[in-house]
Amino acid sequence: MVVYTGKTVKEAIQQASRSLHQPEAALKVEVLEQPRRGFLGIGRRPAKIEATIKPPKATPAPQPVTAAPTAAPVKPVADQGRSVSAAVVHPNHPLEEGDDQDPAVIKARHEANIRHTRNAGQQLTAYLKKVFADLGIETDPQLSKVGAHSVMINIKTASSGRVIGRHGSRINAMEQVSAAFMNYHGAPKTSVVLDTSNYRQRRREALHQIAERAATEVVASGKAVFLDPMPARERKQLHQELENDDHVRTYSHGREPYRSVVIAPKN
């Protein structure tokens, strides 16, 4: 088997045409691998095809004309139902009519989504390890939780402060890169949470204290308090912390990645 490569499938076919001294229309082409641009230079690969020369078309011999036989009546076959195990359920395959009501199909699709997300998550852990190594930080990222559309990765390291960055800037930025990585590897709209040394739990407790202090300041001064920019997940926690407060209201201000929470008097 002769394999031809190129940046695109078209370039690979042109390479095969030149090597075999045949026009492209005379080639039988089988695509072995689609090209991949890679993510930030990682995972790049060329297109790969197998090409052979098509055999010449044989002229069919004339066939005697005979009367068509009478078709036998077709017996109706009772619907025996579809077997879920007989078909491969792909997470991106559209549901057929009635599938959304079939518990077995729904369960199989959910399990397929989890497997697909786990595979992409395992690739993400290897990618994160390389990125942090390029920054001079030795880490061991591990999948701790996997859902159909969510992953949590615990980054084990002796340098958790460098992984977190100032006010969580580095770990939050890596979460955004990780979400883009998952989307590129076929797991779109996947929520990615990165954690190290229980930082996320400590951050939740800190946000609770920030909300209480800011609300007290707003009530005492009668003026709005603008908090530092933070990720959407942390803004959501602050909104929830104060949504039942009778004296203050919250809203978000600015554009990503500098969007922040404002705590203002309710009246």
Automatic annotation (TrEMBL):
Source organism superkingdom: Bacteria
Key word Cytoplasm present: yes
Record HAMAP family: KhpB
Family: Belongs to the KhpB RNA-binding protein family.
One family name in Pfam for this protein: Jag_N
Domain notes: Has an N-terminal Jag-N domain and 2 RNA-binding domains (KH and R3H).
Segment forming the signal sequence: none
Gene3D superfamilies assigned: 3.30.300.20, probable RNA-binding protein from clostridium symbiosum atcc 14940 (3.30.30.80), R3H-like domain (3.30.1370.50)
SUBUNIT field: Forms a complex with KhpA.
Role played: A probable RNA chaperone. Forms a complex with KhpA which binds to cellular RNA and controls its expression. Plays a role in peptidoglycan (PG) homeostasis and cell length regulation.
Main subcellular localisation: cytoplasm
NCBIfam families registered for this protein in UniProt: Jag_EloR
Region (Disordered): 52-84
PROSITE patterns hit by this protein: R3H
The UniProt record lists the keyword Cell wall biogenesis/degradation: yes
Biased composition (Low complexity): 64-78
Gene: khpB
UniProt keywords, alphabetically: Cell shape, Cell wall biogenesis/degradation, Chaperone, Cytoplasm, RNA-binding
Domain R3H residues, every copy: 201-267
Compartments, record wording: Cytoplasm
InterPro entries to which the protein is assigned, alphabetical: Jag_KH, Jag_N_dom_sf, KH_dom, KH_dom-like_a/b, KH_dom_type_1_sf, KhpB, KhpB_N, R3H_dom
Protein name: RNA-binding protein KhpB
CDD domains per the UniProt record, alphabetical: KH-II_Jag (cd02414), R3H_jag (cd02644)
